[in-house]
Amino acid sequence: MTDNNTIEYCLNALKDVGADKAQCVLIRNRKYEMNVESGEISLFRTTFDVVLSLVAIKDGKKGSTSINKINEEAIREAVTNVMELAETGERDEAFDISPHQVPKEFIYGDSEPDMDKMHDLLKGFVTKVKEIYPLVNIMESQLTFKHVIKYFANSNGVNFKESRGLYEFGCLFTSIDKEKSSSFNYTGCSMKKLEKELLELGTVRKLLKESIEQLDAIAMEGKFVGDIIITPDCLGDFIDYYIYTFLGDKALISGTSALKDKLNTLVASPKFTLTSNPISKDICEGYFITGDGFEAKNIKLIDKGVLKSFLLSLYGANKTKLKKADNSGGGYIIDAGEKTFEEMVGNIKKGIMVSRFSGGSPSSNGDFSGVAKNSYYIEDGEIKHSISETMITGNLLELMANIKDISMERVDFGSAILPWICMSGVTISGK
Amino acid sequence: MTINNLNTYFDQLSHYTELRVQENKTMQITFLKGNIIQNTKESRSGVSARVYKNGSWGFASSPEMDEDNIKAIIKHAEGNAAFLDFREKKNRSPLQVKKSNVEMDLRTKNQKLSQSQLMDFIKEIDAYISKKYKNLSERMLTLKSLTMEKNLITSGGTSLYSMLPRTNIIISMTMDKNNEPVQLFDIIGGLGEFEDNFSTPMALYEKIDSLYEHLAKKSEGVYATSGLKECVMDADLAGILAHEAIGHTTEADLVLGGSVASNYLNQLVASPIVSLVDFANTYDGQICPIPIYIDDEGTEAQDSVIIENGILKGYMHNRGSARHFGVEPTGNARAFEYFDEPLIRMRNTAILPGKSKLEEMLSSIDDGYYLMKSSNGQADTTSEFMFGVVLGYEIKNGKLGKAIKDTTISGIAFEVLKSTTMISDEMRWSSGGMCGKKQWIPVGMGGPAVKCTVNIGGR
Questions:
Q1: What is the rounded CA–CA span in Å between residue A316 and residue B416?
Q2: Which tens digit of pLDDT belongs to each residue from B119-165?
Q3: Among A242, B141, B144, B273, which one is most buried in terms of CB atoms within 10 A?
Q4: Which residues lie below 8 Å from residue B205, measured CB to CB, with a gap of 6+?
């Protein structure tokens, strides 16, 4: 069967067994991956997979299943299983599928990798790192080409297809000097084309250089409340924590989100604007179809500190009676600020710059604590030295309200465009 | 899964080759405040081959497991190895292999429950909680199961069939205090299918009641005071300490990558009362949470003694790292999905029990904490570790005091183990953990209670 025939077969099969509403997503996934381990290219891996996900809603009850076979026998078994899940489930009026939209096809990026160029770039990266940063050990690194074809269809006549090809680069590294090791660090970037040397992507060069400085990290002592600068590499994690804790389905359905009644009110510093841009030309790791079958749009989540949108799915919106988001999150862009990075540092009496955060998941109220990794001590407007054994404790809501400065400079990771942000009121504690 | 007789492909394996057919099945039912927000079954199966040629690896996988596809995947993997070998030219000698054969099928021998019966089970527990504990602002119940079924042959003549199931029920409760949510969870279950782990809903009520009592105390809790503190870590945390603080630091790929553990082999790294082992499949005559008999490189799995009486004795290896260090491989190479390559992973990592009683350990602390439950954790090449603590109590003058709010603890692994002064005589395994590296994989973690000094995050 062709892929379109497979989709049609699935939807018809679900309707034949009594589904009131049916949804079918077929994904074909090809990955070509070159791996570095301990500073040398070690593995070339190709994986081809297909995933077929079915959803059935009957009498207000929902079941979902996913298999990776698309022959008729496997589909019939999956249809039987998903109907059994639906029939034994619980009724919920909030279960639904997306309404009819104009069928569309979206295409992004290449459909085939340039494997010779992938090898040359990765080899060049490994060689250059050994030459320029001989103390740095690339623990692991991957350069990957992924091509994904996604079909999304449902019994309301939704019929979308998205084909996306992109390259992803990631590296995990540490520095070693005799018996000293620095804390490991990692960074990465996604891109549509292989146009740059890997060393010039994102913050790769910067973090490799810092890794060597961090061999001489000094353990902090004592405790104080001060400012922190969160770097672009670290900021993505905090944004994800914030969204999960306050803006997503679970937090709002359960009622634990402190922002549940705060739409269109000031929830962060007026300096802060956060958008989610899956279809922006500036974001290559985006998507055109949301997880619940809508054509995606870019949205403002926080505009000059005012909460403009939650990130609710169709189910979450139906459950909470709040507005559904126009996308499924991701592709985050934070507006640039008005201070240079040097000016931001210059404004800090006592604080740290946090490049990586290693901590427990934040509490439902936004409390967090964890270790500030690959980080630096700042005093009297100067970055003094790298630090170790330092913990930070604070609250996500307070962080956002206490933004002092946002940098003009931003880093484009391909998946997000993020600045440096300085926040105050964080407990910083050493040994 | 239709398990193919992979031995028929043995003659196709011209280089060092691992040929694996694997199916992972998962099921998840989640109730949030009585609403079913997840009701899902998933299955992913396929074939993969990994080939070693002169020091370069090639890997290929496909979801199709018919004869023509299996032969094509072997060729594809050989082609990928050749692609890399041509460019890298490492000229390394072949990997040595030994022959082993194991069949281990751990599927349930009990009568299987229907989907409807499983749903009724969870609903009954949910009903018990909602009826008894009306002041909860949120309750969430998740039933999760994972089965990994695999068939492996290698060019060295090894063959493995294994079917490894794991089932957990995760109970999470939240209550509001001063308009702020306070949450606590427990993970129940472990090795085996649902029918091996759970008999009746009523059998879980005692654990649910205990969870609620701790939550109520936590809602009245205080922030921990930050800084270095003497603590008793209960078994749950001792297990994650073993896994995060020491385990990752002594995985040979991290050792080669720069872990400080590379400097300390055969040196005193912990108090002499501390011993730590990554068990392959059996401890004290009992099967471990994740029993591995042959790993995904075809190596017969042995216990890896990491620390013995305070001395760092060894690392965890795959074939390549074992050759580098001049030791025998330990059977630590595992892959999660059929399309994943084997990486060095832990199996059942535990600190061994000592001689003390928990009560005497608690009463020996003037100003510290009793830490009982953890959330996530992370390790580092510097051996600095961290993990989240979601349940703990102050200890004041040898007695338990107020509960503490969520916090994080950290430390330098070997310094923390050197500060260990008491270890309890009981052993408990936690069997719901997943370890993330390049891929996720289920792991077992265990231990007794441990008294040591750690850095606590707080206000």
A1: 44
A2: 999 999 999 999 999 999 999 999 999 999 999 999 999 999 999 99
A3: A242
A4: B128
Question: Which run of H or of E encompasses A346?
Answer: helix A341-346
Q: Report H helices in B164-258.
A: 194-197, 205-219, 235-240, 252-257
Nearest residue of chain A to residue B174 (CA atoms) = A256
| Chain A touched by B123 (CB under 8 Å) | yes
Question: Which parts of chain A have pLDDT scores under 50?
Answer: none
pLDDT in tens, B154-173: 999 999 999 999 999 999 99
d(CA A115, CA A123): 12
- Sign for the CA dihedral angle at B314, B315, B321, B324 comes to negative
User: B-chain residues within 8 Å CB-CB of A37?
Assistant: 253
Closest CA to A259 of A186, A200, A320, A350: A320
Burial of A118 (0-12, 13-18, 19+ CB in 10 A): buried
CA distances from A377 to A216, A220, A372, A382, B276 (A): 13, 9, 11, 8, 36
CB pairs under 8 A between A and B: 244
Token output for A17: 């067994």
Cβ of residue A127 closer than 8 Å to a chain B Cβ: no
For chain B, the maximum distance between any two Cα atoms, rounded to a whole number of angstroms, is: 71
ipTM (interface predicted TM) = 0.94
Measured in angstroms, the CA of A45 and the nearest CA of chain B are apart by: 5
| B47 touches A at CB < 8 Å | no
CA pair distance B263, B117, nearest whole angstrom: 55
Are B226 and A427 inside 8 Å of each other by CB?
yes
Cβ contact A254–B33 (<8 Å): yes
Structure tokens at B320: 């390549």
DSSP 3-state assignment of A144? strand
Asked if A71 reaches chain B (Cβ–Cβ under 8 Å), the answer is no
Contact residues on chain A for B376, CB-CB shorter than 8 A: 360-361
Kindly calculate the radius of gyration of chain A based on its CA atoms and give it in whole angstroms. Answer: 24
Half-sphere exposure of A146 (CA within 13 A, CB side): 17
Nearest to B406 among A88, A140, A360 (CB): A360
If we measure between CA atoms, which residue out of B29, B69, B80, B28 comes closest to residue B45?
Answer: B69
Q: Are A128 and A29 in contact (CB under 8 A)?
A: no
CB contacts of A369 in chain B (<8 Å) are 406-408, 457-458
Classified as helix, coil or strand, A53 is strand
Q: Does B107 touch chain A (CB under 8 A)?
A: no
All residues at 6 or more sequence positions from B340 whose CB lies less than 8 Å from its CB, including other chains: B48, B438, B439
A297 is written with which tokens? 């749009």
* Residues whose CB falls within 8 Å of the CB of residue A368, separated by 6 or more in sequence, listed in order: A241, A359, A360, A362, A393, A394, A395, A396
Contacts with B, A 255-284, CB within 8 Å: 255-256, 258
Conformational region of residue A329, where left means phi above 0, alpha means psi within -120 to 50, and beta covers everything else: left
Rounded Cα–Cα distance for residues B199 and B216 (Å):
28
Spatial contact of B147 and B165, defined as CB atoms under 8 Å apart: yes
Contact B138 A393 (CB under 8 A): no
